[in-house]
Histone-arginine methyltransferase METTL23 (Grus americana), 198 residues
Amino acid sequence: VLDSQYGMYVWPCAVVLAQYLWVHRRSLPGKRVLEVGAGVSLPGVVAAKCGAEVILSDSEELPQCLHNCRRSCLMNHLPHVPVIGLTWGRVSPELLSLAPVDIILGSDVFFDPKDFEDILTTIYFLLEKNPHAQFWTTYQVRSADWSIEALLCKWKLKNVRIPLHSFSADKEHLASSSLPGRHTIEMMIISLARSDGT
């Protein structure tokens, strides 16, 4: 999916999330998967190749990102994967009419702290509609002084950290790329916290 000729760049977080999907590929056939902030959409493409029913999304205000999603699908022989515009924090007709989902994917969506609340608003809305769904997300630790823990608490969401070594994603040269080893990347699975606090 790395395509420098067209300026399509895969971030390290996407490689790590794709590795997690690959390790869990036997659980993916028939699962309904939505990738948010997809960009080049490596995780979504991997999920689709593994048999999941995938919808890719990125901001409706970023037509170039939506174009990259579509091109990525075509380059990977997935012409039927739908690509939709979903803007974080906005309850749009596209968001309201989404089919049920089992897994939401997001790689490096926690990039700019000013967007965190909008992202979690959208994720909370999707999890409320799909209470058994999970949000699988990888992010790069860019600053020691930001954290989404308080926001997760506010939105009644819980998170489970997934150690990278548990799915062989702690290698310096993951997926023939030297990218992940030079960055601190974390993975977590976010879901609704039940009313009993668990």
Observations:
- The chain has a mean pLDDT of 85.
- Residues 116-129 form the longest helix (14 residues).
